[in-house]
Amino acid sequence: MSVIMLMIGLAILIYMTVRGINIIISAIIASVFVAITSGQDVVEAMTGTYMTGFTGYFASYFLLFLLGAVFGKVMGETGAAESIATWVMKVIGPKGAVMAVVLACAIMTYGGVSLFVVGFAVYPLAVSLFRTADLPRRFIPAALVFGSVTFTMFLPGSPEIQNIMPTEFFGTTPYSGFWIGMLVSIFNFAVGSLWLHFAISRSVKRGEKFEAHASDAELNEREKEQLPSILLAILPIVVVVAGMVTYSQMFSATSAAIFALLGAIVVACITMFRYITDFWRVLERGANDAILAACNTSAVIAFGKVAAVTSGFTQIVDAVLQIPGPPLLSLAICINLIAGLTGSASGGLGIALPILSPIYLNMGVDPGALHRVSVMASDGLASLPHNGYIVTTIKNICHDTFKRAYLPVAMMAVVLTMCATALAIILFTLFT
Protein backbone atom coordinates (compact mmCIF):
# COMPACT_ATOMS: atom_id res chain seq x y z
CA MET A 1 0.00 0.00 0.00
CA SER A 2 2.88 2.37 0.78
CA VAL A 3 4.22 1.94 -2.75
CA ILE A 4 0.80 2.71 -4.19
CA MET A 5 0.45 5.88 -2.07
CA LEU A 6 3.92 6.95 -3.16
CA MET A 7 2.96 6.54 -6.81
CA ILE A 8 -0.23 8.51 -6.22
CA GLY A 9 1.87 11.29 -4.67
CA LEU A 10 4.05 11.32 -7.77
CA ALA A 11 0.96 11.38 -9.98
CA ILE A 12 -0.31 14.41 -8.06
CA LEU A 13 3.01 16.19 -8.64
CA ILE A 14 2.99 15.36 -12.37
CA TYR A 15 -0.65 16.34 -12.83
CA MET A 16 -0.33 19.68 -11.07
CA THR A 17 2.85 20.55 -12.95
CA VAL A 18 1.36 19.73 -16.35
CA ARG A 19 -1.65 21.84 -15.40
CA GLY A 20 0.70 24.78 -14.99
CA ILE A 21 0.65 25.02 -11.19
CA ASN A 22 3.86 26.42 -9.68
CA ILE A 23 6.33 23.59 -9.09
CA ILE A 24 7.13 24.75 -5.53
CA ILE A 25 3.45 24.70 -4.56
CA SER A 26 2.96 21.38 -6.36
CA ALA A 27 5.94 19.82 -4.57
CA ILE A 28 4.69 20.96 -1.14
CA ILE A 29 1.19 19.58 -1.74
CA ALA A 30 2.55 16.27 -3.04
CA SER A 31 4.96 16.06 -0.09
CA VAL A 32 2.17 16.63 2.41
CA PHE A 33 0.14 13.87 0.75
CA VAL A 34 3.08 11.44 0.88
CA ALA A 35 3.83 12.34 4.51
CA ILE A 36 0.22 11.81 5.62
CA THR A 37 -0.31 8.54 3.75
CA SER A 38 3.01 7.09 4.96
CA GLY A 39 2.28 7.85 8.61
CA GLN A 40 4.88 10.60 9.05
CA ASP A 41 4.39 13.54 11.38
CA VAL A 42 3.40 16.18 8.82
CA VAL A 43 4.94 19.11 10.70
CA GLU A 44 8.21 17.25 11.23
CA ALA A 45 8.22 16.00 7.65
CA MET A 46 7.81 19.51 6.22
CA THR A 47 9.94 21.52 8.63
CA GLY A 48 12.56 18.81 9.01
CA THR A 49 12.90 16.36 6.13
CA TYR A 50 11.50 18.62 3.42
CA MET A 51 13.40 21.75 4.41
CA THR A 52 16.64 19.84 5.02
CA GLY A 53 16.45 18.47 1.50
CA PHE A 54 15.57 21.90 0.10
CA THR A 55 18.28 23.90 1.85
CA GLY A 56 20.93 21.19 1.50
CA TYR A 57 20.69 21.10 -2.28
CA PHE A 58 20.37 24.89 -2.51
CA ALA A 59 23.49 25.44 -0.43
CA SER A 60 25.55 22.90 -2.37
CA TYR A 61 24.78 24.03 -5.90
CA PHE A 62 23.49 27.61 -5.83
CA LEU A 63 26.80 29.08 -6.99
CA LEU A 64 26.70 26.83 -10.06
CA PHE A 65 23.13 27.90 -10.75
CA LEU A 66 24.11 31.56 -10.27
CA LEU A 67 27.16 31.54 -12.53
CA GLY A 68 25.38 29.42 -15.14
CA ALA A 69 22.42 31.79 -15.20
CA VAL A 70 24.59 34.92 -15.34
CA PHE A 71 26.70 33.41 -18.12
CA GLY A 72 23.55 32.56 -20.02
CA LYS A 73 22.19 36.09 -19.59
CA VAL A 74 25.47 37.60 -20.79
CA MET A 75 25.47 35.32 -23.85
CA GLY A 76 21.84 36.24 -24.51
CA GLU A 77 22.17 40.00 -23.89
CA THR A 78 25.25 40.36 -26.10
CA GLY A 79 23.63 38.38 -28.89
CA ALA A 80 26.40 35.75 -28.70
CA ALA A 81 23.92 32.88 -28.34
CA GLU A 82 21.95 34.11 -31.34
CA SER A 83 25.16 34.63 -33.31
CA ILE A 84 26.21 31.01 -32.70
CA ALA A 85 22.77 29.72 -33.66
CA THR A 86 22.70 31.90 -36.78
CA TRP A 87 26.17 30.73 -37.83
CA VAL A 88 25.30 27.05 -37.39
CA MET A 89 22.10 27.44 -39.36
CA LYS A 90 23.89 29.40 -42.09
CA VAL A 91 26.51 26.65 -42.45
CA ILE A 92 23.97 23.84 -42.59
CA GLY A 93 21.25 25.74 -44.44
CA PRO A 94 17.44 25.43 -44.53
CA LYS A 95 17.61 21.88 -45.91
CA GLY A 96 19.24 20.87 -42.67
CA ALA A 97 16.82 22.86 -40.53
CA VAL A 98 16.35 20.20 -37.87
CA MET A 99 20.05 19.41 -37.45
CA ALA A 100 20.87 23.11 -37.41
CA VAL A 101 18.57 23.57 -34.42
CA VAL A 102 20.00 20.50 -32.66
CA LEU A 103 23.65 21.46 -33.20
CA ALA A 104 23.12 25.09 -32.21
CA CYS A 105 21.65 23.90 -28.90
CA ALA A 106 24.39 21.31 -28.43
CA ILE A 107 27.27 23.75 -28.90
CA MET A 108 25.86 26.18 -26.37
CA THR A 109 24.79 23.70 -23.70
CA TYR A 110 28.12 21.86 -23.81
CA GLY A 111 29.74 25.28 -23.46
CA GLY A 112 27.86 25.95 -20.23
CA VAL A 113 25.00 28.15 -21.44
CA SER A 114 21.80 27.70 -19.41
CA LEU A 115 19.22 25.39 -20.98
CA PHE A 116 16.52 28.01 -20.77
CA VAL A 117 18.67 30.68 -22.41
CA VAL A 118 19.50 28.25 -25.21
CA GLY A 119 15.83 27.47 -25.75
CA PHE A 120 14.75 31.09 -25.93
CA ALA A 121 17.74 32.06 -28.11
CA VAL A 122 17.37 29.29 -30.68
CA TYR A 123 13.57 29.16 -30.88
CA PRO A 124 13.06 32.25 -33.13
CA LEU A 125 15.61 30.95 -35.60
CA ALA A 126 14.10 27.46 -35.41
CA VAL A 127 10.71 28.91 -36.35
CA SER A 128 12.27 30.73 -39.30
CA LEU A 129 13.99 27.59 -40.57
CA PHE A 130 11.00 25.31 -40.06
CA ARG A 131 8.83 27.87 -41.86
CA THR A 132 11.27 28.05 -44.81
CA ALA A 133 11.47 24.25 -45.03
CA ASP A 134 7.69 23.93 -44.40
CA LEU A 135 8.18 21.39 -41.60
CA PRO A 136 5.61 20.68 -38.84
CA ARG A 137 6.40 23.07 -35.99
CA ARG A 138 5.27 20.55 -33.36
CA PHE A 139 8.73 18.97 -33.74
CA ILE A 140 10.58 22.13 -32.69
CA PRO A 141 10.39 21.24 -28.94
CA ALA A 142 11.87 17.80 -29.72
CA ALA A 143 14.75 19.37 -31.65
CA LEU A 144 15.46 21.82 -28.83
CA VAL A 145 15.33 19.11 -26.15
CA PHE A 146 17.41 16.67 -28.21
CA GLY A 147 20.20 19.21 -28.60
CA SER A 148 20.07 20.40 -24.99
CA VAL A 149 19.53 17.55 -22.54
CA THR A 150 20.43 14.25 -24.19
CA PHE A 151 23.86 13.49 -25.69
CA THR A 152 25.28 16.87 -24.63
CA MET A 153 24.36 16.33 -20.99
CA PHE A 154 26.26 13.09 -20.61
CA LEU A 155 29.21 13.95 -22.85
CA PRO A 156 32.41 13.67 -20.77
CA GLY A 157 33.59 17.09 -19.62
CA SER A 158 30.19 18.73 -19.62
CA PRO A 159 29.94 21.52 -17.00
CA GLU A 160 26.28 20.72 -16.30
CA ILE A 161 25.40 19.92 -12.70
CA GLN A 162 24.42 16.34 -13.57
CA ASN A 163 28.00 15.65 -14.65
CA ILE A 164 29.48 17.41 -11.63
CA MET A 165 27.45 15.79 -8.83
CA PRO A 166 28.79 12.21 -9.22
CA THR A 167 32.38 13.41 -8.71
CA GLU A 168 31.60 14.09 -5.05
CA PHE A 169 30.40 10.55 -4.40
CA PHE A 170 32.66 8.44 -6.63
CA GLY A 171 35.91 10.43 -6.38
CA THR A 172 35.92 10.92 -10.15
CA THR A 173 36.34 13.83 -12.59
CA PRO A 174 33.92 15.26 -15.17
CA TYR A 175 35.85 13.26 -17.79
CA SER A 176 35.51 9.87 -16.12
CA GLY A 177 34.32 7.04 -18.34
CA PHE A 178 35.59 9.08 -21.27
CA TRP A 179 35.81 6.68 -24.22
CA ILE A 180 32.63 4.75 -23.62
CA GLY A 181 30.84 7.96 -22.69
CA MET A 182 31.97 9.53 -25.96
CA LEU A 183 30.98 6.47 -27.99
CA VAL A 184 27.51 6.29 -26.44
CA SER A 185 27.00 10.03 -26.94
CA ILE A 186 27.80 9.61 -30.64
CA PHE A 187 25.38 6.68 -30.79
CA ASN A 188 22.70 8.78 -29.12
CA PHE A 189 23.24 11.65 -31.56
CA ALA A 190 23.26 9.41 -34.65
CA VAL A 191 20.17 7.36 -33.77
CA GLY A 192 18.27 10.39 -32.50
CA SER A 193 19.02 12.32 -35.67
CA LEU A 194 17.81 9.43 -37.84
CA TRP A 195 14.62 8.96 -35.84
CA LEU A 196 13.81 12.67 -35.84
CA HIS A 197 14.35 12.84 -39.60
CA PHE A 198 12.18 9.76 -40.11
CA ALA A 199 9.37 11.05 -37.87
CA ILE A 200 9.27 14.47 -39.53
CA SER A 201 9.42 12.98 -43.05
CA ARG A 202 6.54 10.64 -42.22
CA SER A 203 4.48 13.55 -40.90
CA VAL A 204 5.18 15.60 -44.02
CA LYS A 205 4.08 12.68 -46.22
CA ARG A 206 0.82 12.59 -44.25
CA GLY A 207 0.23 16.20 -45.25
CA GLU A 208 1.46 18.06 -42.16
CA LYS A 209 2.92 21.50 -42.86
CA PHE A 210 4.27 24.44 -40.93
CA GLU A 211 1.54 26.20 -38.97
CA ALA A 212 1.81 29.89 -38.18
CA HIS A 213 1.06 30.98 -34.61
CA ALA A 214 -0.13 34.34 -33.41
CA SER A 215 2.90 34.35 -31.11
CA ASP A 216 5.21 34.45 -34.16
CA ALA A 217 4.58 38.18 -34.44
CA GLU A 218 6.28 38.64 -31.06
CA LEU A 219 9.56 37.07 -32.19
CA ASN A 220 12.29 39.64 -32.36
CA GLU A 221 15.29 38.51 -34.39
CA ARG A 222 18.14 40.99 -34.40
CA GLU A 223 19.71 42.25 -37.57
CA LYS A 224 22.96 40.52 -38.49
CA GLU A 225 24.89 43.75 -37.99
CA GLN A 226 23.74 43.89 -34.35
CA LEU A 227 25.32 40.53 -33.48
CA PRO A 228 28.94 39.90 -32.44
CA SER A 229 31.12 37.92 -34.82
CA ILE A 230 31.12 34.15 -34.47
CA LEU A 231 34.72 34.29 -33.18
CA LEU A 232 33.78 36.63 -30.34
CA ALA A 233 30.59 34.67 -29.64
CA ILE A 234 32.32 31.29 -29.43
CA LEU A 235 35.31 32.50 -27.36
CA PRO A 236 33.54 32.31 -23.94
CA ILE A 237 32.44 28.75 -24.70
CA VAL A 238 36.03 27.83 -25.54
CA VAL A 239 37.02 29.35 -22.19
CA VAL A 240 34.49 27.14 -20.37
CA VAL A 241 35.66 23.94 -22.08
CA ALA A 242 39.36 24.78 -21.64
CA GLY A 243 38.72 25.82 -18.05
CA MET A 244 37.03 22.51 -17.24
CA VAL A 245 40.02 20.62 -18.66
CA THR A 246 42.55 22.74 -16.76
CA TYR A 247 40.86 23.33 -13.41
CA SER A 248 39.58 19.78 -13.00
CA GLN A 249 43.22 18.73 -12.66
CA MET A 250 43.72 21.09 -9.72
CA PHE A 251 40.39 21.41 -7.91
CA SER A 252 37.18 19.54 -7.22
CA ALA A 253 34.76 19.24 -10.13
CA THR A 254 32.39 21.79 -8.58
CA SER A 255 35.20 24.30 -8.07
CA ALA A 256 36.47 23.65 -11.61
CA ALA A 257 33.02 24.38 -13.06
CA ILE A 258 32.73 27.56 -10.96
CA PHE A 259 36.15 28.86 -12.06
CA ALA A 260 35.48 27.94 -15.70
CA LEU A 261 32.12 29.73 -15.79
CA LEU A 262 33.49 32.75 -13.93
CA GLY A 263 36.35 33.04 -16.42
CA ALA A 264 33.93 32.77 -19.33
CA ILE A 265 31.72 35.53 -17.88
CA VAL A 266 34.72 37.85 -17.51
CA VAL A 267 35.93 37.12 -21.05
CA ALA A 268 32.44 37.60 -22.52
CA CYS A 269 31.94 40.91 -20.72
CA ILE A 270 35.34 42.25 -21.79
CA THR A 271 35.22 41.17 -25.43
CA MET A 272 31.54 41.99 -26.04
CA PHE A 273 30.97 44.86 -23.62
CA ARG A 274 29.68 47.19 -26.35
CA TYR A 275 26.75 44.83 -26.93
CA ILE A 276 25.64 45.06 -23.27
CA THR A 277 23.27 47.96 -22.65
CA ASP A 278 22.95 47.60 -18.86
CA PHE A 279 25.60 45.40 -17.21
CA TRP A 280 24.12 45.49 -13.71
CA ARG A 281 20.67 44.71 -15.04
CA VAL A 282 22.10 41.59 -16.73
CA LEU A 283 23.60 40.47 -13.41
CA GLU A 284 20.31 41.15 -11.62
CA ARG A 285 18.29 39.13 -14.12
CA GLY A 286 20.80 36.30 -13.96
CA ALA A 287 20.63 36.25 -10.17
CA ASN A 288 16.83 36.23 -10.23
CA ASP A 289 16.77 33.38 -12.72
CA ALA A 290 19.29 31.44 -10.65
CA ILE A 291 17.21 31.79 -7.50
CA LEU A 292 14.07 30.65 -9.31
CA ALA A 293 15.78 27.68 -10.99
CA ALA A 294 17.56 26.62 -7.79
CA CYS A 295 14.38 26.92 -5.73
CA ASN A 296 12.33 24.96 -8.28
CA THR A 297 14.89 22.16 -8.37
CA SER A 298 15.35 22.21 -4.59
CA ALA A 299 11.58 21.93 -4.11
CA VAL A 300 11.40 18.80 -6.25
CA ILE A 301 14.42 17.30 -4.49
CA ALA A 302 12.79 18.06 -1.14
CA PHE A 303 9.71 16.11 -2.29
CA GLY A 304 12.04 13.24 -3.12
CA LYS A 305 13.58 13.46 0.37
CA VAL A 306 10.14 13.09 1.95
CA ALA A 307 9.42 10.17 -0.37
CA ALA A 308 12.81 8.60 0.41
CA VAL A 309 11.98 8.01 4.08
CA THR A 310 8.79 6.07 3.32
CA SER A 311 8.62 2.30 3.48
CA GLY A 312 7.38 2.28 -0.12
CA PHE A 313 10.59 3.93 -1.31
CA THR A 314 12.68 1.42 0.64
CA GLN A 315 10.72 -1.45 -0.89
CA ILE A 316 11.32 -0.11 -4.39
CA VAL A 317 15.07 0.35 -3.84
CA ASP A 318 15.43 -3.09 -2.23
CA ALA A 319 13.57 -4.70 -5.11
CA VAL A 320 15.77 -2.96 -7.69
CA LEU A 321 18.97 -3.96 -5.89
CA GLN A 322 17.90 -7.60 -6.17
CA ILE A 323 17.61 -7.44 -9.95
CA PRO A 324 19.91 -10.10 -11.46
CA GLY A 325 22.62 -9.01 -13.85
CA PRO A 326 25.54 -6.57 -13.74
CA PRO A 327 25.55 -4.06 -10.85
CA LEU A 328 25.42 -1.16 -13.31
CA LEU A 329 21.98 -2.35 -14.44
CA SER A 330 20.39 -2.07 -11.00
CA LEU A 331 22.17 1.26 -10.44
CA ALA A 332 20.74 2.66 -13.67
CA ILE A 333 17.22 1.43 -12.95
CA CYS A 334 17.28 2.83 -9.43
CA ILE A 335 18.54 6.26 -10.48
CA ASN A 336 16.09 6.33 -13.38
CA LEU A 337 13.16 5.61 -11.08
CA ILE A 338 14.22 8.20 -8.50
CA ALA A 339 14.85 10.82 -11.20
CA GLY A 340 11.39 10.06 -12.55
CA LEU A 341 9.98 10.42 -9.05
CA THR A 342 11.50 13.88 -8.69
CA GLY A 343 11.09 15.00 -12.31
CA SER A 344 14.68 16.20 -12.25
CA ALA A 345 17.96 14.63 -13.36
CA SER A 346 19.96 16.54 -10.76
CA GLY A 347 17.21 15.94 -8.21
CA GLY A 348 17.33 12.20 -8.81
CA LEU A 349 21.10 12.15 -8.47
CA GLY A 350 20.93 14.27 -5.31
CA ILE A 351 18.71 11.70 -3.63
CA ALA A 352 20.10 8.49 -5.12
CA LEU A 353 23.87 8.95 -4.95
CA PRO A 354 24.24 9.41 -1.18
CA ILE A 355 22.30 6.16 -0.72
CA LEU A 356 23.69 4.09 -3.58
CA SER A 357 27.31 5.18 -4.02
CA PRO A 358 28.68 3.33 -0.94
CA ILE A 359 26.82 0.15 -1.96
CA TYR A 360 28.26 0.01 -5.47
CA LEU A 361 31.75 1.20 -4.54
CA ASN A 362 31.90 -1.62 -1.97
CA MET A 363 31.03 -4.04 -4.78
CA GLY A 364 34.26 -3.01 -6.50
CA VAL A 365 32.57 -1.50 -9.55
CA ASP A 366 34.78 0.89 -11.54
CA PRO A 367 34.10 4.47 -10.30
CA GLY A 368 34.34 5.89 -13.84
CA ALA A 369 31.66 3.49 -15.03
CA LEU A 370 29.47 4.35 -12.03
CA HIS A 371 29.88 8.05 -12.78
CA ARG A 372 29.01 7.91 -16.48
CA VAL A 373 26.11 5.47 -16.10
CA SER A 374 24.67 7.58 -13.26
CA VAL A 375 24.68 10.69 -15.47
CA MET A 376 23.01 8.89 -18.37
CA ALA A 377 20.45 7.12 -16.19
CA SER A 378 19.39 10.40 -14.58
CA ASP A 379 18.15 11.70 -17.94
CA GLY A 380 15.53 9.08 -18.75
CA LEU A 381 12.34 9.10 -16.71
CA ALA A 382 13.37 12.54 -15.43
CA SER A 383 12.01 13.88 -18.73
CA LEU A 384 8.44 12.82 -17.98
CA PRO A 385 5.87 15.65 -18.33
CA HIS A 386 6.50 17.11 -14.85
CA ASN A 387 10.11 18.00 -15.70
CA GLY A 388 10.53 21.77 -15.40
CA TYR A 389 12.56 22.23 -18.58
CA ILE A 390 10.17 20.08 -20.63
CA VAL A 391 7.19 22.12 -19.41
CA THR A 392 8.97 25.40 -20.12
CA THR A 393 10.11 24.32 -23.58
CA ILE A 394 6.73 23.09 -24.79
CA LYS A 395 4.43 25.63 -23.18
CA ASN A 396 6.44 28.81 -22.58
CA ILE A 397 9.08 28.82 -25.29
CA CYS A 398 7.29 27.05 -28.16
CA HIS A 399 3.69 27.95 -27.19
CA ASP A 400 2.56 24.41 -28.01
CA THR A 401 0.60 21.72 -26.21
CA PHE A 402 1.67 18.42 -24.65
CA LYS A 403 -0.86 16.60 -26.82
CA ARG A 404 0.84 17.80 -30.01
CA ALA A 405 4.48 18.03 -29.02
CA TYR A 406 5.29 15.69 -26.14
CA LEU A 407 5.50 12.33 -27.97
CA PRO A 408 8.54 13.33 -30.09
CA VAL A 409 10.11 14.87 -26.96
CA ALA A 410 9.56 11.64 -25.04
CA MET A 411 11.16 9.61 -27.85
CA MET A 412 14.25 11.84 -27.74
CA ALA A 413 14.64 12.40 -24.01
CA VAL A 414 13.12 9.26 -22.47
CA VAL A 415 13.18 6.29 -24.85
CA LEU A 416 16.40 7.04 -26.74
CA THR A 417 18.26 8.05 -23.59
CA MET A 418 17.29 4.80 -21.86
CA CYS A 419 18.54 2.86 -24.90
CA ALA A 420 21.83 4.76 -24.77
CA THR A 421 22.11 3.98 -21.06
CA ALA A 422 21.58 0.30 -21.78
CA LEU A 423 24.37 0.40 -24.37
CA ALA A 424 26.69 2.09 -21.86
CA ILE A 425 25.96 -0.63 -19.29
CA ILE A 426 26.83 -3.35 -21.80
CA LEU A 427 30.07 -1.67 -22.87
CA PHE A 428 31.24 -0.87 -19.35
CA THR A 429 30.43 -4.41 -18.23
CA LEU A 430 32.43 -5.91 -21.10
CA PHE A 431 35.43 -3.59 -21.05
CA THR A 432 35.98 -2.47 -17.43
TrEMBL record:
Protein keywords: Membrane, Transmembrane, Transmembrane helix
Organism of derivation: Lysinibacillus macroides
One protein family per Pfam: GntP_permease
Keyword Membrane: yes
Keyword Membrane: yes
Entries under InterPro entries matching the protein: Glcn_transporter
GO CC list: plasma membrane
Transmembrane segments: 6-36, 48-71, 97-127, 139-158, 178-200, 230-250, 256-277, 289-308, 328-353, 405-431
Residues in the signal sequence: none
This protein's name: Citrate transporter
UniProt GO MF annotations: gluconate transmembrane transporter activity
